[in-house]
Amino acid sequence: MEQKQPFTVEVTRGGMVESRHYGTAIIVDAKGKVLHSWGDADQLIYPRSAIKPLQSLALLESGAADHYQLSDAEVALASSSHSSEPLHINAVSAWLKRIGLGAADLECAGHLPSNEKAAHDMIRSGEEITTIHNNCSGKHTGFLSTCLHLGEQTKGYIQADHPVQERLLRILSEMGDCDLSGTPRGIDGCGIPVIGMPLAGMALAMARMAAPEGLETKRAAAAKRIVPSMAAHPAHVAGTGRFDTVAMTAARGRFTTKTGAEAVHAGIIPELGVGIALKVEDGNKRGSDVAIANILDLLGVLDDTACEGLKDFLDMPVTNAAGSLVGHVSMQDGWAG
After folding, report:
1. Is 286 helix (H, G, I), strand (E, B) or coil?
2. Domain contains 55
3. Considering Cα of 29, then 34, then 38, then 43, what sign does the dihedral take?
4. Domain of 262: which CATH number?
5. Separation CA 103–CA 115 (nearest Å)
6. Vertex 314 angle, CA 308 and 315, to 5°
7. What percent of the chain has pLDDT over 70?
8. What is the pTM for the complete model shown?
C-alpha cells in the first residue's frame, strides 16, 4: 500500500488536537518491493544515528570484531546511541583498554549522560565527563578497532577523507543501491560526516540487513551477527526507558530498531525480510516513537506481551506537572489506509 500523503501524529489535550507531527515512512523488502509508504520516500534526509547498524558492518567485515574477540554485547554497543549509564561507560572503557587505547583516542566530545539518574549521579560525585560519555562512543570504539586491525592511522578517523569514513560511504551506497556522491553533506553530532540519503535507500539497506542472503559472503555474515546481537542486548543499544530498548525487550528478539536524531527511525524485521525507514518532518522524537511503534504493530510483529510493553508508545500519555493524564500522542485516525 502506497500513500502520497504523509502520516500524521496528533497531540491532543482535552477535546482538541493541540499539535500535529507530519512524517514520511517506507517499508520495503530486500529486492526493493514497496510494502507500505507514506509521503515522498524519495526525499533526501540525513539518516543520523539510525544507520549505525550499517556503520558497524565494516567492524565485522574487516575481521576486527573476531580479532579483538568482541562479545555480542560489544557488537550491539557499536551500533548504539547509549544513555551513558554505568553499563555503557564500563563496557566502552573495557573495550578501549583491551585494544590498547583510551578516552583520549576517541574524537567525539563528551557530554552529560542523557539518562537523568546517571547525570545526577555524576554531578553529585564530581565525576569528570570524558569522551566515553558521548552517546556515540561505542560506534567510535568500533571505528578505532577497525583502524587498528587494518593498520590505519587512528588520528583523524572522523574526517571525510579517512579510510573509515570512505568505507562507510561505500557501504551506504551499496546497501541502499543509491549514488551518494553528489548528495548534501554535514557534520553529525559526534563529529563524523553525515550524508544525505534517500529515505527509500535507507529502508532498502535495512531490508538487506533483515534478509542478507543476497549479499556477498562477508557482508552477509556481518549482518547476521549485528542484527541478532542488537536484539539480544537492547539495553546496550539505547538505555533505560528509551524506545529501542523498551521495544526490543518487549519483542523478545523479533526485530531490531534504531533511532536517530531529528526524529529518524529505522527498523529491521528478519522474520518478514523487510526494512523500515521513517522521518518526522519537524524533528520531534515523540512523533517518530509513536509512528514506529504503530508501524511495527501494523506489520503484525507485536504480540500481546509486546503491545503491553509498548503501550505508552503506541498511545503516548501526556501528563502535567502533577502526573495527571491530560492528553495523548497518537496516530491520526485512518493513517494505515
Report:
1. helix
2. yes
3. positive
4. 3.40.710
5. 20
6. 105
7. 99
8. 0.96
Distant-in-sequence, close-in-space partners of 142: CB < 8 Å, separation ≥ 6: 55, 56, 59, 64, 78
Give buried/exposed letters for 9-46 (b at 16+ CB in 10 A, else e). Answer: bbbeeeeeeeeebbbbbbbbbbeeeebbbbbebeeebb
> If 0-12 CB within 10 Å is exposed, 13-18 middle and 19+ buried, where does residue 207 land?
buried
Q: How much is the pLDDT for 3?
A: 64
76-99 as b/e: b if 16+ CB within 10 A: bbbbbbbbbbebbbebbbebbeeb
Q: Which helix (H) or strand (E) holds 164?
A: helix 163-176
CA-to-CA separations, 89 to 77, 141, 145, 187, 240, in angstroms, rounded: 11, 12, 17, 24, 14
Q: Three-state SS for 28?
A: strand
Report the domain count for the chain.
1
> 34 forms bridges with which residues in the sheet?
28
In a domain, 256, yes or no: yes
Q: Does 178 fall in a domain?
A: yes
pLDDT digits (tens, 9 = 90+) for 278-317: 999 999 999 999 999 999 999 999 999 999 999 999 999 9
Determine the structural domain holding residue 277 and report its residue range. 2-331
What is the rounded distance in angstroms from the CA atom of residue 251 to the CA atom of residue 332?
Answer: 24
Cα separation values, 188 from 60, 79, 159, 184, Å: 23, 15, 11, 13
Query: What 8-state DSSP symbol labels residue 126?
Result: T
**Within a domain: 46:** yes
> Are 46 and 186 within 8 A, CB to CB?
yes
SS3 267: strand
Q: What is the phi/psi pair of residue 97, to 5°?
A: -60, -40
Amino acid at 199: L
